[in-house]
Protein 1
Amino acid sequence: MPRNFIFFSLAVLLLFGAVAAQAQDNGLQTLRGDVGLSETGVAPDVRRQNTDSGRFTRAYRQAPPMIPHKIDAYEIDLKVNQCMRCHDWPRNVEEGAPKISETHYIDRDGVALDYVARTRWFCTQCHVPQANAATLVDNDFRSAIDVE
Ligand code: HEC
Ligand code: HEC
């Protein structure tokens, strides 16, 4: 192995060690909490979806809207996307569902398509069902509406 490579690896290891040690000093907590890597933690409570109070407002203009209905029964896999049954034009009209955004028909090269772009296929990558859940980790995030 070339010598430089060994030195470089050592430097990287030291750097990671220093960063990890500092993270501990700051009292940062992960979603796992105090539970060690090899231990099994207690499963978190199941959060009830909030489907009764209408739509939650978006936290900022470009935010993906949250899903105001149940989605347990809607399959999304390589071939099937049941969300599109209601959210694709023109079926959305008879279903009374909002059409997916025009941005969802544009592929990564900026080409406008007549079907949902593959980059938007897995809806739940960005859209999550709304729930009245407590924050998992304390943070200072404020909605753009509150900041004004
Ligand atoms: C049976 C039809 C149907 C299916 C299937 C369906 N939806 Fe919906 N969706 C609706 C309707 C109707 C609304 C509007 C509800 C309202 O106005 O309260 C809606 C609202 C939404 C919204 C809110 C849009 C906004 O502008 O606020 C999102 C996001 C959404 N759905 C995502 C999904 C995703 C993701 C899936 C698949 C996992 C899905 N939907 C499957 C009918 C459907
Ligand atoms: C990569 C992230 C991403 C994915 C994947 C994605 N969306 Fe969105 N979606 C957004 C964002 C961001 C917005 C709001 C900004 C915009 O309109 O582009 C949005 C907006 C919407 C809206 C509101 C449209 C409107 O005009 O108010 C609906 C409905 C929606 N998406 C449904 C879906 C469905 C159904 C899928 C899966 C087929 C999906 N989205 C996949 C990010 C995403």
Protein 2
Amino acid sequence: MATKKIKEEDQFSATAISKKLEGLFELQSVDSQIDKLQILRGELPLEVTDLESEIDKLNEHLKSQSDIDEQLNNSISSQEQKIEEANALIEKYNKQQMKVRNNREFDAINKELEFQGLEIELSNKKIKGVGSELEENAEKIKLIKAKIRTKKKHLKNKKSELDVIIKSTEKEEDKLTSKKKKLQKNIEDRLMSVYDNLRTVSKNGLAVVKVERNACGGCFSSITSQHHLNIKLRKDILFCENCGRILVPDDIDQK
Ligand SMILES: [Zn+2]
């Protein structure tokens, strides 16, 4: 128990605080270097994801137009089927008409023949209508396909541009990332999450800044002399009262 207590106290000792601040500052400089490498990529990563989602949307559109195409073709097939059936009936009625015994039977069959003739006419009319819809739809499909081709070409170019940049900085970034991991291990979780939150909300990715000319190096607002003194003495993890960033003394990287 006794040793544990000493250890806890040790956590708040000047050297422990100093080490924490140094660790945080070092992590910040590694992160800033990684940020710089990523800035080199500019808008390219965003452009790539935008193009990818545009292509996805176009593919969905193409799929729905292709479904319409299928439906239209199906309705043509069913009309053709009807015509075939009507023709079969006409053939059957024609044969029956040869064997009629009276006018009444002849007239009845004639009516059926007329009816089937009208059915065929109607089906042909429907097929014609669907045909022009099919043509319109085919035109739409053609346009979508052309758009997809253009976007894909564009995407390929952007991706290769991005690849060139990534490859040129890959080794450096890997080195920095492994350095970052090592540094993170030595920082307690609570501080890490404070740091990560600060980095996400700050536009320039700075969570840890030096006090420069009595001002916060992040938002440049001035710092009271008492606060500055406490920071200089490394009394605790202290924050800028204006922007909330972690403040470190300007001699933090001088050993
Ligand atoms: Zn500030």
